[in-house]
């Protein structure tokens, strides 16, 4: 059996940027795997969630708020529209853009996906205590707000 790696913990302590990137990649991979079991990609889930919370908005606003590349957002919205989870209409305030809205089918799909999220989060962050998860959420919020 090969020896257990011992360098990465030292590197992570010296380079929190590297540790965060590696942790983010691991959680992202787990999220995509979980999302695949739900038949709804992570980006699709986030778009439905935001539309359900804030109402109709442009693809640009979705991309900026959810930090999804604009070209990726187009394909996410295309897929959601094909599935009848969202509708796109010309934005009356800006005819050059589209207003994206969640449909009743999209709300139903979101509710189903949201039921599995707490168990996934518990599993993905099982190494952390509830207090540590709260601290991590606060710290990540600070990093993302800047």
Keywords:
Arc Repressor Mutant, subunit A; 3 strands; 12% strand
* Helix percentage range: 55-70%
CATH-defined topology of one domain = Arc Repressor Mutant, subunit A
Instruction: Write the element-wise H/E pattern from the N-terminal end onward.
Output: HHHEHHEEHH
Ends apart, CA distance between termini: 44 Å
CATH architectural grouping of one domain:
Orthogonal Bundle
Strand pairing plus helix content: what structural class? mainly alpha
CATH superfamily of one domain: Winged helix-like DNA-binding domain superfamily/Winged helix DNA-binding domain
Low-pLDDT runs of 5+ residues are: none
Q: What's the gyration radius in Å?
A: 18 Å
Strand content: 5-15%
- Count of helical stretches: 7
Largest sheet: 3 strands, antiparallel
Topology:
Elements (H helix, E strand, L loop, with lengths): L6 H8 L1 H23 L3 H13 L2 E2 H8 L3 H13 L3 E6 L2 E9 L1 H21 L5 H16 L1
Antiparallel strand pairs: 1-3, 2-3
Q: What does this molecule look like?
A:
By secondary structure, the protein is mainly α. The protein has a domain at 24-114: Arc Repressor Mutant, subunit A (Orthogonal Bundle), CATH 1.10.10.10. Helices cover 70% and strands 12% of the residues. It has 7 helices and 3 strands, in the order αααβααββαα. The protein has helices at residues 7-14, 16-38, 42-54, 59-66, 70-82, 104-124, 130-145, and strands at residues 57-58, 86-91, 94-102. The protein has a 3-stranded antiparallel beta sheet with strand order 1-3-2. It is elongated and about 60 Å long. The model has no long low-confidence stretch (mean pLDDT 91). This is HTH marR-type domain-containing protein. InterPro entries: HTH_MarR-typ, MarR/SlyA-like, WH-like_DNA-bd_sf, WH_DNA-bd_sf. GO terms for molecular function: DNA-binding transcription factor activity. Pfam families: MarR_2 (PF12802). Residues 13-145 form the HTH marR-type domain.
């Amino acid at each position: 059996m090969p020896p257990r790696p011992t360098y990465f913990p030292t590197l992570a302590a010296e380079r929190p940027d590297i540790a965060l990137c590696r942790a983010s990649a691991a959680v992202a991979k787990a999220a995509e795997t979980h999302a695949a079991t739900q038949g709804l990609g992570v980006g699709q889930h986030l778009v439905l969630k935001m539309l359900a919370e804030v109402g109709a908005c442009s693809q640009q606003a979705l991309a900026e708020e959810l930090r999804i590349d604009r070209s990726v957002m187009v394909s996410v919205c295309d897929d959601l529209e094909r599935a009848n989870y969202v509708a796109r209409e010309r934005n009356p305030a800006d005819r050059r853009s589209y207003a994206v809205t969640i449909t009743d089918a999209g709300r139903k799909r979101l509710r189903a996906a949201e039921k599995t999220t707490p168990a996934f989060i518990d599993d993905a962050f099982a190494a952390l205590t509830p207090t540590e998860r709260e601290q991590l959420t606060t710290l990540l919020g600070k990093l993302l707000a800047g």
